[in-house]
């Protein structure tokens, strides 16, 4: 099996190479590829009509992060893991550390948690579960994973790169079930969809969103959210990427470089789908679904019918994160370390603050009155905007 790592920018160009697996079941090695075309220059920031005043509230310095890591907010605690395996549980109100644990192993994906137990996946394909600052169990996985584990209902769920979904008992690590799907030989080296909706386990498998019974992994329904139309392996890649918009019973997700689709998650039926050239996830509210395309163009689609409400090219080629709407504010980070507040009605910039020149590593998350931003260098910064 092969994996393709999505670049931080591109428009109709493949600027990073393929990495190859050397066995039928396991991803064993990476092979470097050839040179890449010249990178477009990031769009220069311009003056704007400021309507938001942002200030830094607290900061904590951890270690470097990579693109398949995530933060986890549960039970009022913020959990993070560095690329080198330092796990830290923070109070998001003031940044105070509840506990930390040095796993001393490089991390491939994580972190997931439910406030009691947390889980990460190492580059050695080990699923590691923790509680109260201690490792409680670890198991070897059948393949690599780029998706953070889901910890819910006393179980730990995992999606591996060979399109296998596994469930483990949260207390003991005993494997409860395993379901595997076949698919294209190429897999996106990027976090996929593994989440929950009511009593369903929601999993992205190739270009399909599948609702599984969390007790046994049996599929209840599935919806095609990304149809392959290409003539080669890269163009046929339609994996669903992490970062979904969920408003009531409507879930919207992005198929890599193919489309944005919204479904009725109760019925398992398609509401609308629109062609879109992006590789990061979505956010939304009652009126709009927000997304950043691979060239940095920001787009808002009407939530009811998928028609484009507005587009903005003010941040093109700046390597944008998921554009996240929470608590009445729309926020997006970029690869140059800036955080931008946007007017959700038209996409215009209303606030801006540079956090760290190393770049914003993951989607900014709203916690109470603050936004928490994590950079590639491992700076965790809380921002308050009024």
Under the CATH scheme, the architecture of the domain at 41-66 and 279-386 is: 7 Propeller
Tally of separate helices: 0
Instruction: For the record, give the distance between the C-alpha atoms at the N and C termini, rounded to a whole number.
Output: 48 Å
Spans where pLDDT lies below 50 across 5 or more residues: 8-35
Coarse shape: globular
Oligomer: single chain
% residues in beta strands: over 45%
The CATH class label of the domain at 41-66 and 279-386 is Mainly Beta
CATH superfamily of the domain at 41-66 and 279-386: YVTN repeat-like/Quinoprotein amine dehydrogenase
Secondary structure: helix percent = under 10%
Main sheet record: 4 strands, antiparallel
Strand order of the largest sheet: 3-35-34-33
Notes on the structure:
By secondary structure, the chain is mainly beta. The chain has a domain at 41-66 and 279-386: Methylamine Dehydrogenase, Chain H (7 Propeller). Helices cover 0% and strands 46% of the residues. It has no helices and 35 strands. The radius of gyration is 20 Å and the shape is globular. The model is unreliable at 8-35 (pLDDT under 50).
What would a concise description of this structure say?
The chain is mainly beta and 386 residues long.
What key attributes describe this structure?
386 residues, mainly beta, Methylamine Dehydrogenase, Chain H, four-stranded antiparallel β-sheet
